[in-house]
Sequence to fold (207 residues):
Amino acid sequence: YTTVYAVEHQHEFDEDGLCPCGYSCPHDQVDEEGECILCGKRFYVQGTYDDGTTHYYGTISDALGDPAVTQAKILRALTEECESWNGGDRSVTLDLNGWNLVVESIQGGHLILRDSSESGSILAVKEIQKDGQVTLESGRLAPQGETLSVYGKLTVTGGKVDSLTAMEGSTVSLSGGSFGKIVGRGVTLKELLAEDCYYAELNGETP
Fold:
């Protein structure tokens, strides 16, 4: 006769968290750097739903493209750009968390930008289209090219904008932050200020 022993199976995961036995890692425990503690798979973005549950993504496009995500946080240096984002009627808060990101065009939806690391992380954008909206709370908004063209809506309450051009028909509200260059096309610079706000030079004097 043959003696058969029952032993505990040890999962051996591939890079996608799959074991040859058919088991798929649920990625229930992911550390602050985006690595699954059980299988070792690396994630780049953490997304949070309205109900508070967290989910993890391999690309920023996947995270922002998930219609249930209301908050997204970058966990490590991204390996790809996001060509465009159209959130429809959604509002998503994006925490750069010390990492830089390129989104060429904001086509729709409301992107609220912040940087919890306070390191001046950069979101590079070419244009905010007519149906797009961006609110900058902290971090740095930089143009792809010479200037960020705003056709839709831009609200700045903090952070830094390197260069922006407000196009005719756009809605720009500046109540905080600092700016390298501001150009108005069909609008005056005064019209871009929020109520009871004014421009000041770095030394605090009103120009």
